[in-house]
Fold this protein.
Amino acid sequence: LGLFIIRRAVARVPPLACSFDRDSPRVSPTHPREAKMPPTNTKSFVKKTKAGRVMKVVREHYLRDDIFVGTELALPEFRGPDPGSWVLANDADSYVVVDTNVALHQIDLLAHQSVQNLIVTSVVLEECRNRSRPSYERLRLLCQDPRKKFFVFANEHHRDTYVTALPGESINDRNDRAIRVVCKFYERAVPGMKIVLLTNDRGNLQAAKRENINAASVREFAQQRAGKEPGLSDLVAPSALDDEGDELAEKTGKRQKVSEGAKGDEKKGDAAYAKFTSFTEHLSQSAVAAGVAGGSLHQGALRTSRSSPWEGTISCDAVDAEILIIGRDAMNRAMDGDLVAVRLLPEREWRKPSAVLPTAGGDGDGDAANDAMDVSLAPRTAEENDVSTTENNSKGSKATPTGVVVAVVKRAWRERGYAASLDIGDGGGGAVGRRAVEQSNGTTPARVLVIPVDRRLPKIKIQTRQAGTISDQRLVVVIDDWPIDSLYPCGHYVKSLGLIGDADAETAAVLLEADVDDRPFAPGVHACVPPLPWSFCENEHLQRQPHREDLRDLRVCSVDPPGCRDIDDALSCRVTEFFLDANGEVALDANGERKPKTFELGVHIADVTYFLRPETAMDSEAKRRGTTTYLVNKRLDMLPKPLTEDICSLRGGTERLTFSVFFEFSATTHLPIENSEPRFTKAVIKSNAALTYQEAQEMMDDVSDTSELTKDLRNINACAVALRKRRIASGALSLASPEVRFELDQTTSDPTDVGAYITRQANRMVEEMMLLANVASATTILKKFPSQAMLRKHPAPVPRMFAPLLKSCGAVGIDMDVSSSKTLADSLDNAQRLDDPYFNTLLRIVATRCMSQAQYCVSGGGGSGTSGGGDPSQSLSHYGLAAALYTHFTSPIRRYADVVVHRLLNAALGLEPLDTAFDSQDGLRATAENVNLRHRNSQGAGRASVELHTHIFFKKKPVERVEARVVRVKANGVVVFVPKFGIEAPLVFDVNDVEGDGKGEKGGEKTSLASRCVFDEDAMRVVDPNGKAWRIFDALFVRIEIEELPARRSRLAIREVA
């Protein structure tokens, strides 16, 4: 093996400083003269490269004596000659040095506008980067904000502040000591300025006090500033020091205890408090690893019910089923999305998921206003389906595999926080909240509960002095910990988004919950966009690019939804050959028109990658965002608007650059000519028209319209119909998912009308052309780059995923064959009811919910985000489309995956070399995983926005009577789907009509109401206490209205009407 030696010498600025943006002025400056000293130590080690070569790496650590301290108040030898480097303010009360614990866990407090003049050491930045990338990025941005006056001091490269580890000293203790050395150094360098060490580490705090360093905990720091910034204390994340401080204060009588009345109300209203002592201790990482390896434990991501955080499942291939977890104790502090280790219970202890719908006050939290299941958009895929449907995973009435959480391997808590509201409803938590609101004086802290917007999450315990002012606000809270002896997770209040129910505040909550970035683009990103007005230039775009074809004379048009501004695709169709008669003349058809023999169909896509260059600020931002997010009232772009709405948008009558692909079609069969290959080319077009779907449909339907553009559309549509027919014959699925459309007020953006989205043949025409181009792109890039192609795969559902469909069909006597996509498609086609034309659509909606979401992947080696091992034709195929290969090429304006595909095609055609980013399989997989995540988040934000605007619409316009369908049957009610509005809601049988009804415990199978019903789970039939039978797919009429609740809260309710 070859042995290579690499020497890495740090001479001028430490690596951490170099990790900041080059325009950042807030890194420890150095004097122009060289003050490098001999290396203090030399470390060497051997590493093995991916190519298998062994390399010896030698790292020499250099120190300097001219790294300055960032303030004009420093002694001359430490001040530095450049006033631009004097970041810390002269009039500050003190300079604060933070340790890693604070930087990681108190970032919300550090971000507060009043917190300024901080010294962030390079050792802290290094630890943050290694332990939490999101925290590091936030801290990095704070250090670059000139308003914050945060100074980065390169302590690891200063002669006076570098420390070596003592014998037996841990890395953590060494770093804490280094931070204390910085504090003492600043005391010498800036005489007269108070230097404070801010830490929540008990050992560091005690050591600082022994060394006569001014040190404070974060709670003390906030309390010292309570007079000017009373809200600062609310940002303090709980820590062990707080608990110790509370105990000491209570013993000495220096802290006011929580009133006994509040505690009494809390316990009286919440049965869970009376029974709770503590959760079970989590297993260690080593015990979990051994258990998983030995098969006694199972690991997976927890997915909880949409209506309760105390019921969930994890997927487990080992038992060929989903493992059910029911109850607060079984959850053992795990939350939705957490990676957990689960121990399977003995089969005699297996249970069935709850057969009852959650009702007000029924989850054990005692909150009638928040416990009942909400109205929501109907789910479209298995991922969006509620885990409470896992009852269908078990055959008949058998129990499903059940387990308990024994460890949380990795938390999924969002560092940005969660949208929530103060708990002031019925029950113990609400009683405490109401008391806190009544007694709020802005100075005394109160411990209260907040209710996350996401019902899959438990309530969160926070401490705040602002209960009186935030009771009607939509809040942002961050979860910090879940102690073993706490019924709920503990967190802290960050900020208010606005009044509950306000459209802007709720939209901000939607984006927060979906983790969608709505921040404006940075100046560096805008600098990458060509200045407006931009126009096509023949010299630049044709003569200097001989590969680009001039297609401005080609008849082209785009077809999009109304109001679309980011037009990234257009279509063309021209006759390339006519039939000839016996005399060799062009043959005529029955209408006297020339009879075409072949067409050239063109799909023209905006040439985004001409403007979006690799390794630029705009490319990095686009990769991070991953996709454009479409809300009801606005659009959050992946790229700056000048690019998406102007420079790249294929607007009518405007010359624009494209990446085009052409196909040869037979005018007789309207299918691609056999053995013909698609032709990709860069081009410039001038679109003849930017049509809406409705306009294109009306043109094709108007028999009197004989314009050339209309003829083109009819020819394209004929080809689309033939392509669709061929796809379905090959096993492609024709599924259904409810979509709604809104009409918005031009002034207020409030919805004035809502209804089901109408899909026309023009929609399907465009869809088929996009599918055709995407399949051709996938084939081309995989052939040229077999290990680097960005593809989109759709795995076939595992058999248990079809259980809801099979159970529903079995209950109504429909035979459904799900052995392949072809047999499923045929079965769906044959499932008809002559007296119910909507029945088949309902079945297709249920079938759609059995599908997993398609995912982006990278061809080549195994691993997450790749095709993996096995048969490539299976691992890369698209089940729903019945396509061996598929990718996305047609929307580079709004999807970063399409940008990647365009770059691969550029290289495949020899137009430009492949970007160096494609050299790394790990980097490609990371890109695929990120665009998958961002796509899911974007879809979730879009759905939540629709739900929000549906709520706003019904608040102003309740619907007295609309048709609905039963889609799930439970022991105490049914779940109904309203096709017109695309919403799904529980319809719990009215307890007021049942004498002696009581409220049972959540998760129990026998409540008074349920026991009065006759429930047949296999037949999906229930008879309510009044004797009325309800069956799956039954039709009924409902009223939709808004129920007003205290403190600006409201909820959407559905009730049956005659």
